[in-house]
Amino acid sequence: VGSSSVLTCSPKSSITMVTWKINPKVGGSCTLGYRADQNKTDRTNCSDSINWKLRPDWDPTLEIRQVEIAHEGDYTCEVVATDGNFHKTHHLTVLAPPRLTLYCDGHGVPVCEAAAGKPPAQISWVLESTSTPKEEAHDNGTVTVLSKFTALSTNRTNTTCIVSHPAGNQSKSIAC
Question: InterPro entries under this entry (predicted)?
């Protein structure tokens, strides 16, 4: 989320036409097209964040700026060239790093929250804990994971929560 993604479409010699067909998991489809004989580009229902990386007559690569979860889906490039027709499909999966919050609840128990991650984060504790994380799914495909520290011994002063996620790991410590 937030970075740029570049999807290649192998340039062939003597390109006649290039079409990107974009089918996100959520929302409507969009297309980007280029016709060499008219040196003309066309776009239908595409947001401004989806565009040619360079000029399509040089390179038919697609760029998605400021990637959002809504961009997840299938991106198919169709090239018509003098030596044949070519198709390439990219399946774009978007990772959203969770926001880590660590606090003490009303009973002095450490609570670790990994909010709005995609996929769901894994939560563990440095000191051994019997905690069972709870997950809450959101409409946009992200998941919030909540874990309360359950001490096996009462002799604790500082507790560390570790959040593991494909977009990066995080940790925080607290004394309740």
Answer: CD200R, CD80_C2-set, Ig-like_dom, Ig-like_dom_sf, Ig-like_fold, Ig_sub, Ig_V-set
